[in-house]
Amino acid sequence: MSSPDLHIQAEDLLRAQLAEWPMAGSNYAALDGVRVREIDIDGIIMKVQFNPARIVSSGAKVDAASLKARPCFLCGSNRPAQQRGLPWGDYTVLINPFPIFPRHFTIPLNAHTEQRIAGRIGHMMSMAIALDGYTVFYNGPRCGASAPDHMHFQAGNTDFLTLPQAVGQSRLSESVCVGSARLSTVAGMPMGVLVIDAETAADGESLFAALYDSLPQPSDGEEPMMNLLCYACGSGVRLIVIPRLRHRPSCYGSDGTDTMLISPASVDLGGVFITPLEKDFDALTADRIKEILAEVCMTPGQVSAVADAVRNKIER
Ligand SMILES: [Zn+2]
């Protein structure tokens, strides 16, 4: 599946689609005008983006009945006529017509099958290596995926996020190694963050499998809740794992004075909180973000316990 210049082909696709698909062209042009501000969370800089077009995602109904009632927008047969794709192994690189990033791709599996990461972390790592300069991210089916019925990754230009740089500047405490892959916890983060650094996708895959088995397993057989961000780093690849405790914060909603239409997923946790409503953009503070993170993510202490469990599993 290797195509080392995938990022170049993807950028060519983006340029062509912006010229030939007016809706996508105007949504990307509108990004130039979105309001953005920075919030300092105890030394970690996060951005807030007021992006009204993202109401389609933040407000998405992802219950089984709503999913069944709509044609799947990631299936080839239902895509808009103007949308073209770039084949990559069993996946197709598409431009995201409702962008957050200046360069934003959606990368569905070619088959209509549920959003599940088990057995696919190697694909994600290989994709991140091929998409140099981009962060490939994964939202679990109950952690922000707006199409939990169709397996997909997304990718956006890494320099837009703040978490990769913050992790790069933080102290990593190594917990355990498998081959070239190392699992670490990260000091100083506002939520619990784990990092897998690997020289090869195969090594990263076996360490991730041990981590997956060490996360809290939902009683209904769903996969452990998580958001993942992956990018080329040094001579290998870095995977940021953000385990989740809850899908949406208790303040989630759009109909009250104390509610906010914020549904955190990989991009928000990667350092860019998206607010489709201007009142939320204006109201969001560092304390409010910390409250939201405390509700939906693990604490640094909880991820340290997970890292200990992974070490025990591997060294046993
Ligand atoms: Zn589908």
What's the short version?
This protein has 316 residues and is α+β, with helices and mostly antiparallel strands. It has helices at residues 6-20, 22-31, 55-58, 64-69, 121-130, 163-168, 201-214, 266-269, 278-283, 286-296, 300-315, and strands at 35-41, 44-50, 86-88, 91-95, 104-108, 134-139, 152-157, 172-178, 181-186, 194-198, 226-233, 236-243, 272-275.
Structure write-up:
The chain has 316 residues and is an alpha+beta fold. The protein has a single domain (6-315), classed as HIT family, subunit A. It has helices at residues 6-20, 22-31, 55-58, 64-69, 121-130, 163-168, 201-214, 266-269, 278-283, 286-296, 300-315; strands spanning 35-41, 44-50, 86-88, 91-95, 104-108, 134-139, 152-157, 172-178, 181-186, 194-198, 226-233, 236-243, 272-275. The strands form 2 sheets. It has a 10-stranded antiparallel beta sheet. The chain has a 3-stranded mixed beta sheet with strand order 1-2-13. Strand 1 (35-41) and strand 2 (44-50) form a beta hairpin. Helix 1 (6-20) packs across helix 2, helix 5 (121-130) crosses helix 7 (201-214) and helix 7 (201-214) crosses helix 11. The longest helix has 16 residues, at 300-315. The two termini are 34 Å apart. The mean pLDDT is 92. Bound molecules: zinc ion (ZN). Residues 72, 74-75, 112, 150 line the site of zinc ion. Zinc ion binds at residues 72, 74-75, 112, 150.
